[in-house]
Amino acid sequence: MRYALATWLLLAAPALAQDLVFDPALTADCVAAAGVAEAGACIGRSAEACFTDTEGGQSTLGISACLERELAWWDGRLNDAYGRLRAIDADEDADPSGFAPPVTRVEALRAMQRAWIAFRDATCDYERAQWGGGTGGGPATMGCLMRMTARQSLYLEEQATSY
Fold first, then answer.
1. Residue 74 Cα to chain centre, angstroms
2. Is residue 114 pLDDT above 90, yes or no?
3. DSSP state of 8
4. Tell me: the pLDDT tens digits for 8-57?
5. How many whole angstroms separate alpha carbon 21 and alpha carbon 81?
6. Which residues of 116-139 are buried (b: 16+ CB within 10 A; e: fewer)?
7. What is the full DSSP assignment across 100-131?
């Protein structure tokens, strides 16, 4: 479903996408100043500024495009944090004593992330369904994906810094 929405956005408004005024620094600076533990308040800052600063940004298409840009930014952070955790957990799983836990940290991390993806998708499908097929469903889905990806990114980043 989200791939169909992304395809629709890409095909429907190439002119709007070229004119988007999106600056991830608004969110990045907020996260840096707040720290990972308090960074939840920063989620959506760049997308919101994009709605305001882009001509047509208040349209359904504009809102979706701005949210999609911030989603991509958070997704990059999430992937970086996940990679760092995999490396940390792989080091921790290498126990020289020969004791092997029933589930390694790398396996548990992978299972957790897969379960989170299913939860995220189901949650965002539910948010979209509340629009009953209306035009607000696209922005609702993009906003949900962005928020949930941001929260998971912050969670993984916090885990990676706790070692």
1. 4
2. yes
3. H
4. 444 444 445 558 899 999 999 999 999 777 899 999 999 999 999 988 88
5. 27
6. beeebbeebeebbeeeeeeebbbb
7. --SS-HHHHHHHHHHHHHHHHHHHHHHHHHTT
Could you tell me where the DSSP H helices lie in the chain?
A: 2-12, 14-19, 25-34, 45-53, 60-93, 105-129, 137-161
Domain ranges of the chain: 2-161
**What crossing angle do the helices spanning 60-93 and 25-34 adopt, rounded to 10°?**
50
Question: Residue type for 143, please?
Answer: G
Give pLDDT tens digits for 53-70: 988 888 999 999 999 999
For residue 12, the 8-state DSSP code is: H
Per-residue confidence band for 102, with pLDDT thresholds at 50, 70 and 90: confident
Give the domain 2-161 fold. Substrate Binding Domain Of Dnak; Chain:A; Domain 2 (1.20.1270)
Under 8 Å between Cβ of 151 and 43: yes
Q: Which amino acid is at 145?
A: L
Question: pTM for this one?
Answer: 0.82
Report yes or no: 61 and 77 within 8 Å, Cβ to Cβ: no
Q: What is the mean pLDDT of the chain?
A: 87
Q: What values do phi and psi take at 99, rounded to 5?
A: -75, 125
